[in-house]
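Justification of computing resources. Each target in the renewal requires a structure prediction run like the one illustrated here; the chain below, 143 residues long, is used simply to show the kind of job we budget for.
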Amino acid sequence: YQRRVHGKQWYQRRVHGGTTEVDISDIAEGTTSTIKYRGAPVFVMHRSQEQIDAARADDNASLRDPQTDAERHKDPKWVVVSANCTHLGCVPVTGMGDFKAFFCPCHGSHYDASGRIRKGPAPLNLNVPPYNFQGSILTIGAD
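Resulting structure tokens:
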């Protein structure tokens, strides 16, 4: 089906086997789009070099759910994470919070530009679903 994001047209289509394919070529650097995968929201963030550097600089920080940026993401320019807070499942807002990435307004959880929990009651990082890239096509639901 067709969907409008940030005033541009892009296409998302369902394919058998529970995967979702998305053309990510229209997602501008420094922005995050929300897509649906199996009926649930997923954030797709196209990170700037500044966001990548900040996330990698925090790899050795004291993290509640320790994971490096490279362990979480296949391509440093792209963050693909579940859009449900790991506290009680609310949908965070993007570009907000102490780390200008993901902020859950329900109870105040702050996630960094890697989707790692940094502050607030959430116990875990935002979940990374299985995904892969083929050119500008992101397939969620398949490694």
